Each structure stands twice: as C-alpha cells, then as structure tokens.
Amino acid sequence: MRFFEYEAKEIVRKGGIPTSKGGFATTSEEARARAEEVAGAVVVKSQVLTGGRMKAGGVQFADTPQAAATHSEAILALAINGHDPRGVLVDERVAVKQEYYAGVVWDGIRKQPVMLFSDMGGIDIEEVAEKHPDHVGRGHFSTIHPFSEFQAKQVIAAVGLSGSELNRLVPIVTRLAKLFLRFDMTLAEINPLAQLEDGSFVAVDAHMEMENEARPRQQALLSELGVGDEETRQAREPTEFELAGEAVDAQDHRGVAGNVTEFDGNLGLVIGAGGGSLTLFDAVRAHGGRPANYCEIGGNPSVAKACGLAKLVLSKPGVDKIAVMMSIVSNTRVDIVARGVIKACIELGHDPAEKIAIFRIPGAWEEEGFKILERYGIEYADRSVSLHEAARRAVEKIQGAAATPPASA
Amino acid sequence: MSILIDADTTFLVQGITGREAVNLVRECLDYGAGAKIVGGVTPGRKGRDIHGVPVFDTVAQAVEHHGATIDGSVVTVPPAFTKDAVFEAIENGVKLVVIVTERIPRGDVAQMVELARERGARIIGPNCLGIIVPDVIKMGGIGGPARDAAKSYTPGAVGVISRSGGMTTEMSSTLTAAGLGQSTAVSIGGDAIIGSSYAELMPLFESDQQTEAIVIYTEPGGRMEAELARWVTERNSRLPIVAFMAGRFMDEMPGMSFGHAGTIVEGKEDTASEKIARLAEAGIVVAEEISTIPELVRERIAVSSGSTAG
Amino acid sequence: MALFIDVEVDQAVASDASLAAKLAEVCPVDIFAQKADGTLQINDDRLDECVLCQLCMNAAPQGSVRVIKLYDGNAVLGPV
Question: For the segment A286-299, what is each residue's pLDDT rounded down to a tens digit?
Fold first, then answer.
C-alpha cells in the first residue's frame, strides 16, 4: 500500500531522520495556519497517489500565508489523473545546496533489501542508474544480522563522497535501512534528500510503500497515521462493483470467491484459481472477447459464496452471459461451484443453460459436477478441452448471441 | 530419478492438525509408494495422531522420536507463526522446507531464506503447493487427492516449474494427455520473494539424467525470468525450456496485482512483454497456449538430442 | 428452496434428542440443528451446501438418514 507524501514524511521523522518543516491541511484556512507556523516561503503540494503533480499544477509556491491559502484552494479542487487530492502539504521552501537520493527496495533475486544512494537527487533514480551508473551506490544488507553503519558508509562512499557530507549522511541512510525493515516497507525513498546551505541534511520529499500482508502487524503505525482498514490504496480506487465483490468474499471464511476487478465488456467471468484466472483472462481477450470482470475462485468456497459471486457478475449492467472456467482443481470442488453458479442463474430468473456460456472446471468431484450440469443442460468441458479452447467457445457463443436479434421482436 | 525428493524422503508436517493439513497428510500417504511422513507438529497437541502420523509439540521431539535427521518439512501454519516454524525446522536439521502458507510479509520470507542459506537448507515457496515425483511421492497438496493426482501426473522426461500451484497440474495434465510424463514438478510459489527460483532449480534438473526438457509457467512481476534467461545463456544448458506466460493483460495496468501477490508490475522490466522478449532472446520458446506446449517440447527434445548425436 | 439436495430423516431419529445432537455436531455445513425441545431441525437454506460427506448417515442407524440428490433422478446417496 502507498502512503501519501505527508504520511511518508511522518514515517521518515519516526525513523529519526530530519525533514523540512511543514504540515498537512485539508482546507485553505488550515493551509494558511500551516504557512504561518512555517513563518517563511512555502510550497503547497497536492496530496494524491499519482505522479505528474508538478505538470498538472498541483505544486505551487507561496511567499505569504495568504498566497498559501489561495493556492491551496485551487489545488484542493484540482483532480490529477482522476484522483481527488486528500489535502495539501504546506512545506517550508528550503535553501538547497545539493540534492541527493537515498532509497531502499527489495531485491527479489538476492532476496535481500538493497540500499541505493545517489548524489544526483531530485530526478527518477532509474533514469540516473541508466545514464549515470557511476553516480549510484548500492549495497545489500542482511535481515537476520544487525545492520552496521559501515554498510551505509560503503554505499555513500561508492559515489565518491567524503568529508563531512559522508559523515553526516551515514546515520541518515542507516536509519532509512532500519525503518525499511521495522515498518515492513517495500519501498522507502527520500528524494530529494537535500543538503542545506548550512551543511545539514533534510528529507524534502519521501515515497513510502508498505507491504499489504504486513498491515495487521503494523496497526500501531497505521493508526497513528490515521490510515483506516477500509483504505485499499490500490493504484486505483475500488469501484462499487469491486466493493460488492469483497462483501461476497467476506460473507464466510471458506475459500475465496473474490478479488473482483471491473472491466467494461459483456462476458462475465467466474474464473480461478490464481494462475488459471490470469491465463483465462488473457485467453478470452486473445479470442476477441470482452471480459466484464476479473475474479478468482479458490480454496473450496461454499455454494453460497460461489452463488453470490455469480449473481454479482450476472447482475452487472451489460453482462449477457457468464463463462465459468478454472484450471484443474484439486481442492476446490467442481460440484460445489456448479451448484453455486446454477443457483445464481435460477434465483435471478434466468435459464442456466442460456446464461452459462460454458463450464470448464475439471478435477475434484467432477463426476458429480458433470451430473448437475447435464441435469440443467449446460455446456461443459472436461480436462481434454484446454483453457484457451474453453475461452474460445465462450467468446463464440456470446458473439453469436450479440449478433442475433432478440427472438421476441 | 527425480530432484529434491524421492521414495525414501522423510518429512514432517508443521501445523498438522489444521483442516487443510489433515487432507494433505491423507493425500501424501495415499500417493505413489506412500510418503514417509514421520511426524507432525502442532504446539499443545502432543500425543494425538493424524491418519497414523504422531503429533508432537516441537520439531526436536519429532526428530528424537524418529531417531534420525528428518529430510523435509511441509509448513502450513498461519502467516504470523510461519517464520518461527521454519526457523525451528532448519535449526533442527531439516534441509528441505516446503512453505504452503500465503500472505507472509517479505521481511519474514527474507529472514527464512537467509537462515536457510547459512544452514545449507533449501526453501520451496511460500504460497506454493509443493513437489511431486509422479507415481513415487508427493510432498504437499500438489495435484490433490492421490486418485486425482494420478490422472494428471505420469513419470517421464519433463521437469515442470511453476509460480502457480494450479497451473502446475494443468500443464502436467496437458503433457500427460500428450504422452509426455514428468520427472519432477515443483510449485515454487506466487510471492515476490520465494525460496527457490527457476534459475536455482535448473542445476538440479540439469544433473538429473531423467530430465530432457523443462516447462515453466510464468507471470508478470519480479525479475526471476530475467535471472533464468541469464542462467541459460551463461551455462549453455543442455535442457530446452518451453515457457508459458499468463497475465499479459496486466501490462496495461501498472501498480495492480492479480492472481498472486508477486505479480505486481513495478517497473518496465517486469511486464509480460518484456519478460517474453528476454526469454526468447535466451532461446526459451514461449508458448501462446498451454495446448501447444507438448508439441513444442517434443520438437525441442528432438533438436537437442539431434545436436548431441551430431 | 433447495435445488440440489434433500435430506430425509426417520421420525424415530428426528425425535431422539441424543441422535439429533449428534447429527447437528457431525454436519460440517450446519444442515442439522436441535430445536428447543431437543428434536431435530433441518435447515432448508443449508441443504444445498451439503458436501456429500455421509457423516450424518454414519451417525444414525443405517438407512434412517437419507441424502437425496435432486439433480440425479432423486438418487439416494449410497453408503461407502
């Protein structure tokens, strides 16, 4: 999950790293008060979880509290890439001598965190790494042995820094490495890390992301920051349809029938499991189909849950038919999913044979499942029909249905 | 032969009294020659038995009862307790740990992997279904009940490595239907950090005489495919590899995660299209559909055995 | 209304409090419960969740609990 800049800077401060002065505001009056506290020139920055703030006009400079209030009024009303701002950060404008970069990320190949440091701050680190590799220092560190300052020192010295800069930066990078592990971050970046005219260093902007799986054990930090459980902080906000999908999945604890993502097509998908869903979604699109949604079934959900998911998808405006498909199941039961989706059709007043374009779930309890499908006249397939072939048949059916004028006319 | 496990492999099940673990024990005992599950651990449940497997409070008790080092452990405890369970297994001499549990934070996984490295142990997973050697042994829920696993897996020459547990079975079943058996199939897990990547398992398959080709299932997210491509290029591997890439649609949706926790696209290098290009550069065939895999495998085996003969 | 599964229980079993308690305990999907007077309650809205595990059939005298598959020509689930 991503943090807003004002939260990220708070995390940096909790890690013992100095930041530029300033504060968060949700109204222009609060922004004026924050600017008065800073007592000097400020920068007013939109708090959105998307890039391109500067270009969109979401960052403005103000010399007086009145100007800060005026700018924040405009910024608060400005959506950036479809994101409404959470508020503004009113931050002191610091006199910067030089901008640096300090960051920590996971290296999935080495399976350790890696520190990155550059004396070319203020720009994207990937760009620096590509164009000026000698300006980026790197160092992996252990997750079971205690962190030692020399590890940070080596990374900073690698870009040629020495003198008081080096000695002042070592504790900052050390603290960043430690907070990365302590707070279960997946990304902890200070950019720019600014050296001021007096030689001291402050974090001017920070980007922090925390692992979703760690949220339960990071409750203390999250509640201090005021991050609610309901905030998913995904790349885009969940739609009503997706929230309804979460509610279906939460109705009982048996298995999964969720991870619903909305798309705008006409073929509803009731698919699984993790890898199977990815394969099937691709397969439907490869055959020219337009999925109405993505979802995942797995872990042997109850009939009620499979039914709830199928009902949700069937009720989505624009959905003509659903395709019920999974890779070979060993834990989830074919007959239970079959009951769920048939029940959904019937309870919504549809003929299952007409609404279910294809049912392709081979595996556990398939003999029983196929009996149920036969009883309702539903087209089904066993493992001899590939995932792609099943998807093709579903797409063909729905395109046939769309091409045929309604029989009632 | 096989990699990682064989008919003689002894293992533990940690978290053995959980609902899924009870099923897993039954499945493994019933499959092939019958797995040698020498003990189970659930703290506070010492003295019980699960399908005849004795339950202990600690791994040390299980080792003592067995009277010898135990080769492996299947860990199915809740995410908050997994790190401790894995540490316990490794510190008691277990050399192969299969972690079934999902939703473990990366910080914990990194610690387990690091300890394993220091002790000369290997981790498979987390968030995986385990390992199967067709008709011989399975360690984990892979393939499901013995009767179902027998439908999908047959002995043969293809090594299977997959980031998705379900797709390990789907691909193996497709190979089986086409008359191509498997030497060993490994579900390596869907998380961003896992104990054993493709490139880390390749040397084992490379030295297994039974294995003549590799089939892998891959997804967007992470750099594991780039690592494999590099390995194959540098080592000039004797084994042809056929890959299948799912989740191509995710390239249009950076920052979103689908299917498995590890699939989030965070940079340009971890998109599906970038990975396909890298694999292809290394001479790895990327199949458009699962159903075309057997034919591609046959072609590649013919080419590589032809080149050996010539 | 259940679409897929029906369950018939002999009156002698349904009115026996200890057998009713046993059925309520063994069913993994809560099809059975006990009424206030101790007799058996069958939860119609849970019938379709039946996983065909036969635990109820094994918990009562043979043939006294019958699980019927409505989708299979009303076939009665046979003992293992």
Answer: 999 999 999 999 99
Q: A386 vs A183, A278, A383, B171, CA distance in Å? A: 44, 14, 7, 10
Domain stop point among A226, A252, A281: A226
Which of A327, A365, A366 should be substituted to probe chain B, the one whose Cβ sees the most B Cβ atoms within 10 Å? A327
Q: Are both A85 and A1 inside the same structural domain?
A: no
Question: Contacts of residue A143 in chain B, CB cutoff 8 Å?
Answer: 107, 110-111, 114
Task: Indicate the burial class of A371 (C-beta count within 10 angstroms; 0-12, 13-18, 19 or more).
Answer: middle
Torsional class of B174: left (φ above 0), alpha (ψ -120 to 50), beta (otherwise) = alpha
A259, pLDDT greater than 80: yes
Q: Is residue B284 part of a domain?
A: yes
Query: Across the interface, which of A259, A275, A364 has its CB nearest the CB of B148?
Result: A364
Q: How far is CA B140 from CA B23, B26, B137, C54, in A?
A: 10, 10, 10, 26
Asked if the C-beta of B246 comes within 8 angstroms of chain A's C-beta atoms, the answer is yes
| CATH classification at residue B21 | 3.40.50.261
pLDDT in tens, B207-261: 999 999 999 999 999 999 999 999 999 998 999 999 999 999 999 888 788 888 7
Residue A403: pLDDT band with limits 50, 70, 90: low
Closest residue of chain A to C2, computed from CA coordinates: A343
Q: Do B173 and A328 touch (CB under 8 A)?
A: yes
pLDDT in tens, B159-209: 999 999 999 999 999 999 999 999 999 999 999 999 999 999 999 999 999
Among candidate residues A12, A386, A408, the one with its CA nearest the CA of residue A190: A12
C10 close to A (CB below 8 A): no
CB atoms C69 and A303 under 8 Å: no
Q: Count the domains in chain A.
A: 3
User: Is A383 inside any structural domain?
Assistant: yes
C-alpha distance from residue A68 to each of A21, A64, A91, A301 (Å): 15, 6, 10, 54
Q: Domains along chain C?
A: 5-76 (3.30.70.20)
Task: Tell me which residue range forms the domain holding B18.
Answer: 10-309
- Report yes or no on A56 lying in a domain: yes
B107 touches A at CB < 8 Å: yes
Inspect the interface and report whether the beta carbons of A302 and C49 lie closer than 8 Å: yes
- Subunit contact A375:C72, Cβ cutoff 8 A: yes
- Segments forming the whole domain that contains residue A347: 240-403
Residues A343, C48: C-beta atoms closer than 8 Å: yes
Residue pLDDT, tens place only, B61-116: 999 999 999 999 999 999 999 999 999 999 999 999 999 999 999 999 999 999 99
Q: Do B291 and A384 count as a contact with CB atoms less than 8 A apart?
A: no
Clarify whether residues A267 and A248 are in a common domain: yes
Question: Is pLDDT of A198 > 90?
Answer: yes
Rounded to whole angstroms, how far apart are CA atoms B167 and A273? 9
C-alpha–C-alpha distance, residues B290 and B284, integer Å: 15
CB of B197 less than 8 A from some CB of A: yes
Phi and psi at A131, nearest 5°, equal -90, -30
Instruction: Please give the Cα distance from A191 to A51 (Å, whole number).
Output: 14
Inside any domain, residue A370: yes
Q: Is-catalytic flag, B260?
A: yes
Chain A nearest CA to C19, separation (Å): 26
**Do both A39 and A69 map to the same domain?**
yes
- Identify which of C3, C49, C71 has the shortest CB distance to residue A346: C3
Q: Total structural domains in chain B?
A: 1
Domain end (from A93, A110, A134): A93
Predicted-complex ipTM score? 0.96
Cβ distance of A273 and B166 shorter than 8 Å: yes
Residue A372 has its nearest CB partner, among C4, C49, C51, at: C4
Q: What is the mean pLDDT of residues C14-22?
A: 97
B2 located within any domain = no
Tell me: do A73 and A104 sit in the same domain: no
| Any domain includes B1 | no
Q: How far apart are CA A155 and CA A116, in angstroms?
A: 7
